[in-house]
Design goal:
There is one protein chain. It contains two helices and six strands. It is an alpha+beta fold and 123 residues long. It has one domain. A hairpin with a 3-residue loop joins strand 2 and strand 3. The longest helix is centred in the C-terminal third of the chain and has 17 residues. The radius of gyration is 18 Å and the shape is globular. The protein starts with a strand and ends with a helix.
Length: 123
């Protein structure tokens, strides 16, 4: 499923003691990770490394207190942003609360086209 999975560094934050990152994708200037806690998925973070600012999009699937949310962003900063070894002046994170509805792929669309084409040939 993932190209890389690892446990975060020790930071003493009890709210996310079992936090795990599973890399979804990586480019020269960005990375995306699924977030799990004790084998239970609860979110995703996409990181985009600019010249001086790192932009993050954090999607969480459950209600978190402001304190826990800030703690999670700090953990992501410590575990993923600082360890990327890229200079940065700021880490800007936009947070959303939602649930995954599914994954849409061109391949899914291509398969539908083939199915329709096959159906047309049978007529």
């Amino acid at each position: 499923m993932s190209q890389g999975a690892f446990e975060p560094t020790e930071s003493g934050d009890a709210a996310f003691a079992g936090l795990r990152y599973d890399r979804v994708c990586r480019t020269s200037h960005s990375e995306a990770f699924l977030l799990s806690e004790d084998e239970s998925p609860f979110g995703r973070v996409d990181l985009h490394f600019g010249a001086s600012v790192v932009h993050g999009v954090l999607i969480v699937e459950r209600e978190l207190s402001d304190e826990d949310l800030h703690g999670l962003v700090q953990r992501i900063d410590d575990d993923l942003v600082w360890t990327a070894d890229r200079p940065r002046e700021d880490f800007l994170v936009t947070v959303y609360r939602g649930t995954e509805r599914g994954v849409i792929s061109d391949r899914d669309h291509d398969d539908e086209d083939e199915d329709e084409h096959d159906f047309d040939e049978e007529d």
